[in-house]
Design a protein that fits this description.
375 residues; Rossmann fold; 2 domains; 7-stranded parallel beta sheet
């Protein structure tokens, strides 16, 4: 009898990371894939990216509408309430045997707490990490305590999950799931990418993604843009901020900035292929996305990591930190552009999906029962 494994996704980045795992589950005779889509995927403001999921050949079992038109802290909390209601109805209809949750976003906290109360077992991917500049940190550790099985990206992250009271026999260091996409996805050539994005072929490219620092501020976008003003002969390719508190404020600023400059471009979502191809062709990746620390070094592109959003996360030597100050960002950009290596590969060998699926197959019965593991 096949077991129903439900994957929940709420953002473009998260789907990009999970898509190969979803394919492997879908193709396995031991499992039936179920898919619940929520959050930014269903929002016109963020590009209605659920359509990309369907174009990739996946059947969406349930859509959970949750986002409000505001990104205040109150609105995000209310969105989580709507999500909890929606997830409870969705899970009741599809009756999954196991829920797979990646990471640390507020949509995933709503899914996890719903599954916990409904006695649906959880497998958590990318637990044990630290990001001090966002409330994602607390969400990630909370999901760890609701989950029974854990797939981490480094050995130190595995140790931290065990420190949180999880049995070592149910915690596996499989590496970062996004690395597999880099190794297996045929990337676009520079000519194909530049033509697709309508960039100037004679100019190099910076790839920029800046999300709100949910523990701190959204004002960091202003010194970042001021620092980028110095690069008139560069294609400045921006992807929009996420739906966290202040994300819309940042996107409004970016709309104005890119409309006033002929070398700046703003995209709701590049999708996995175009994003990784852009990383591969970029002179530098700039901002505060986790991909700048995890996936980008594997494509041998330097990163300027701005502010505190990723503070606490393990970083390769090709990542250059800057304060949210114009001079600090400019100095980091100059250093990064001249960087020639090395590019540390600290997040595994990329064979992640086969490791996760193999361990899931070995689990005789999915259950919510677990004990607190004392060190």
């Amino acid at each position: 009898m096949t077991r129903k494994i439900c994957v929940v996704t709420g953002t473009r980045a998260e789907y990009g990371l999970l898509s190969n795992l979803m394919k492997a589950i879908q193709q396995s005779p031991d499992f039936d894939l179920q898919l619940v889509v929520t959050g930014m995927h269903l929002s016109p403001e963020f590009g209605l990216t659920y359509k990309q999921i369907e174009d990739d050949g996946f059947v969406i079992d349930e859509k959970v509408e949750m986002l409000l038109s505001s990104d205040s802290s109150s609105a995000v909390a209310k969105s989580m309430g709507l999500a909890t209601i929606g997830f409870s109805s969705a899970f009741e209809r599809i009756q999954p045997d196991l829920l797979i949750i990646l990471g640390d976003r507020f949509e995933m906290l709503a899914a996890a707490q719903t599954a916990l109360v409904m006695q649906i077992p959880i497998a958590h991917v990318h637990g044990g990490e630290c990001t001090f500049g966002a409330y994602d940190d607390a969400i990630r550790h909370s999901i760890t305590k609701m989950a029974t099985w854990h797939f981490t990206s480094t050995e130190s992250h595995r140790s931290r999950v065990i420190q949180l009271g999880e049995n070592p026999e149910r915690v596996w260091n499989v590496g970062a799931i996004g690395i597999e996409n880099i190794l297996n996805l045929p990337l676009m050539t520079k000519e194909e990418l530049y033509k697709n994005l309508h960039l100037n072929m004679d100019k190099p490219m910076f790839l920029i993604t800046y999300h709100p620092e949910t523990n701190l501020q959204t004002e960091g976008i202003y010194p970042l843009l001021k620092a980028l003003d110095s690069y008139q002969d560069v294609n400045l390719v921006f992807t929009k901020a996420n739906a966290d508190n202040g994300g819309r404020q940042i996107n409004d600023v970016l709309e104005v900035y890119t409309s006033d400059r002929d070398n700046a471009y703003l995209f709701d979502s590049l999708g996995q292929l175009r994003y990784l191809s852009a990383v591969n062709e970029a002179s530098v990746v700039v901002g505060n996305s986790s991909s700048g620390l995890i996936e980008v070094p594997y494509l041998r592109t330097p990163t300027v990591n701005c502010g505190e959003r990723q503070a606490g996360r393990e970083k390769p030597s090709s990542v250059f930190d800057s304060a949210l100050e114009v001079k600090s960002i400019k100095d980091a950009l100059k250093t990064a552009i001249l960087y020639k290596g090395p590019y540390d590969k600290i997040f595994g060998d990329g064979h992640v999906v086969e490791k996760i699926v193999a361990e899931l197959k070995r689990i005789p019965s999915f259950s919510v029962q677990k004990e607190f593991y004392d060190l």
